[in-house]
Inverse folding.
């Protein structure tokens, strides 16, 4: 029986520790996400990865890495020089005021120094020309080009519409510019705003300072998780539920303990009554015995409380006495050092 009680207490403590750790973890993650959110264009970040729920259908498509509205994406920040055309990046759009994720179609880099060549890279799904459309080559490699020179790009599926980019002039340092577009040219949000489909030459112009990271993973399940976690009610409920569980378990343990204590007292009283030869059917004798027993127990409790109080008082006085003794010993040490110092000075004076 005692062994079972010990096991239950241990199990209860373990549950309390786990729930307490869960509360601390949730608060810690929320604080970290809040701080990183303010420094990451409104996108929360944990352990070097950012997370975002997709709100529009602009990236729906047939590509293996295309994704739908409602999915959650995982974003990993890379050095801007490592970003490749054809990859999907998340970036802050200063035009609409929040972060979006689109595919990089072209990357243009200005020269690092005056007189040097800049470069460009085009997605493998597109073609480019550096001779005004006479020759078209498949993108996928970095191409060097002099500042001020232009190149054209076009989709392999839409060769009627071309887009022209110019290598910027040197402006004091090398600058990266990403040109992006969603996979879905029939995106509902764009049609609602403009009344027409997205043209194949449409581009979001993204300066490297607005680059948030590369989309490395996405799923509907994660989108649901993000939607739930970012809901207004999530944090209060996630913290309140464990607290309520801990509180309920504490109350249950208290009630159980109280009942067990009462039963133990009753068993002890019945045993003593039986040992005293009291007839259980004699109500008057049983009542008198119970009153005496309760009175004795109350006196024992009061005496135990007085003992504990006296013990605490003794410990406090003992602590003060130790502190006073330590001060006295310190004083004697300082006095001895001063005396030795004076004696040394007198001897030095006599020798002179």
């Amino acid at each position: 029986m005692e062994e079972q009680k010990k096991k239950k207490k241990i199990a209860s403590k373990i549950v309390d520790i786990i729930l307490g750790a869960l509360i601390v973890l949730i608060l810690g993650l929320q604080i970290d996400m809040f701080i990183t959110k303010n420094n990451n264009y409104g996108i929360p970040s944990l352990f070097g990865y950012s997370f975002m729920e997709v709100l529009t259908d602009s990236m729906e498509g047939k590509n293996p890495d295309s994704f739908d509205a409602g999915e959650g994406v995982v974003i990993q920040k890379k050095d801007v020089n490592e970003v490749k055309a054809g990859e999907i990046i998340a970036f802050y759009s200063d035009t609409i005021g929040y972060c979006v994720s689109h595919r990089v179609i072209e990357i243009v880099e200005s020269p690092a120094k005056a007189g040097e060549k800049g470069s460009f890279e085009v997605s493998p799904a597109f073609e480019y020309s550096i001779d005004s459309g006479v020759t078209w080559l498949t993108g996928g490699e970095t191409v060097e080009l002099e500042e001020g020179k232009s190149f054209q790009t076009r989709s392999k599926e839409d060769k009627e519409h071309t887009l022209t980019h110019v290598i910027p002039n040197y402006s004091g340092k090398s600058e990266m510019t990403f040109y992006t577009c969603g996979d879905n040219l029939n995106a509902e949000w764009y049609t609602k705003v403009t009344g027409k489909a997205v043209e194949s030459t449409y581009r979001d112009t993204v300066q490297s300072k607005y680059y948030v990271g590369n989309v490395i993973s996405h799923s509907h399940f994660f989108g649901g998780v993000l939607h739930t976690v970012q809901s207004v009610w999530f944090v209060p409920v996630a913290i309140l539920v464990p607290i309520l569980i801990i509180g309920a378990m504490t109350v249950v343990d208290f009630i159980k303990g109280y009942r067990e204590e009462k039963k133990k007292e009753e068993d002890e009283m019945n045993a003593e009554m039986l040992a005293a030869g009291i007839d259980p059917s004699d109500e008057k004798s049983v009542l008198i015995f119970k009153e005496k027993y309760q009175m004795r127990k109350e006196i024992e409790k009061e005496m135990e409380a007085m003992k504990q109080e006296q013990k605490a008082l003794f410990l406090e006085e003992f602590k003060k006495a130790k502190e006073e003794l330590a001060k006295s010993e310190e004083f004697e040490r300082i006095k001895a050092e001063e005396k030795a110092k004076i004696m040394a000075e007198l001897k030095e004076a006599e020798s002179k």
About this structure: The helical segments are 2-38, 188-194, 220-229, 234-275, 283-351. The chain has a mean pLDDT of 83. The two ends are 87 Å apart (CA to CA).
